[in-house]
Amino acid sequence: MIGVFDSGIGGLRLLDKLRQRWPQEDFVYLADQAHVPYGSLDRDTLLDLLQLNLNWLEKQGADRIVVACNTASATGIARRYRGQAQIVEIISKTCEQIPASTEKILVLATPFTAQSHRYQQVLARQLPQAEVKEVGLSCLAFMIEHLCPKQEIETYLKGELNAYRNGFDLAVLACTHFPFARDQFAKVLGIPLIDSESIALEAPAQPGQGTLRIATTGNVELLARQLRGLMNWDVPCEHVQIEV
Q1: What is the dihedral of CA 75, 79, 85, 91, to 10 degrees?
Q2: How far apart (Å, rounded) are the C-alpha atoms in residues 20 and 54?
Q3: DSSP code string of 125-165
Q4: Phi and psi, residue 91, nearest 5°
Q5: Pairing of β 64-67 and β 86-89
Q6: Active-site positions?
Q7: Radius of gyration of the chain from its Cα atoms, rounded to whole angstroms
Q8: What is the 3-class SS of 199-222, one letter each residue?
Q9: What's the pLDDT at 49?
Q10: Which end of the chain is more exposed for a tag (fewer CB within 10 A), N or C?
């Protein structure tokens, strides 16, 4: 079984891609919506929450867990997790998609991810010749979680990103929420966009039964509305109580 974890709904698109790739595999998705946005939490609190959330997924049977949250990945949880499941963090996998010839990269992330400089560190090893600019967008994940209108999101992005429209080869959408606003990013920036939805993962060792469970630490009714509004999914959701 593959577990997919995110602080909210951002990882749903990655989950969808993985299910399309491996329709016979069993998946369990956990959204820690009781504590969103992660970008406003301190590192120690985040690490404690991540240990508990990933441990819950492992107890459900997940032997591989994709941390589909860039903020969570920026904490280094992949090497810090105290459990048996294999942890796949999203940042290095996303960076692997950037062409080797790229010279100027704009990384768009939550403030926590931008301030961690984790993308800059990974890209310094992978593409040492590249110039990397990291920009934190403090409101966008919240806006997407709350199903804000597309025009409102585009207006917000114009105000935040007009200064970066020229001078970059591509932009990395370094938050799994951000691809829900991919069209708005494209209009505002006019450059190629890289995100985590096409990351390369090894195939599961054994096929499952094609089952899917979706859980949240937050409001089940809200998550059900988000699933219908963003993914057109009518899937039962369950509540999980996880507190530090």
Answers
A1: 50
A2: 23
A3: HH-TT-EEEEEE-SSHHHHHHTT--HHHHHHHHHHHHGGGS
A4: -70, -55
A5: parallel
A6: 69, 175
A7: 17
A8: CCCCCCCCCCCCCEEEEECCCHHH
A9: 93
A10: C
Contact criterion met (CB below 8 Å) for 36 and 144: no
Dihedral through CA 149, CA 154, CA 159, CA 161, nearest 10? 140
Task: Provide the 3-class DSSP secondary structure of residue 105.
Answer: strand
Residue 142 token pair: 């919240």
* Tokens representing residue 84 in the block: 């048996």
CA–CA separation, 179 and 153 (whole Å): 12
Query: In the numeric block, which tokens belong to residue 64?
Result: 């591989």
> With a cut of 50, which residues of the chain have pLDDT below it?
none
| Adjacent-strand bridge partners of 212 | 27
* CA distances to 43, 126, 145, 167, 225 from 102, in Å: 31, 11, 32, 12, 39
How does pLDDT run across 42-77, given as a tens digit for each residue?
889 999 999 999 999 999 999 999 999 888 988 888
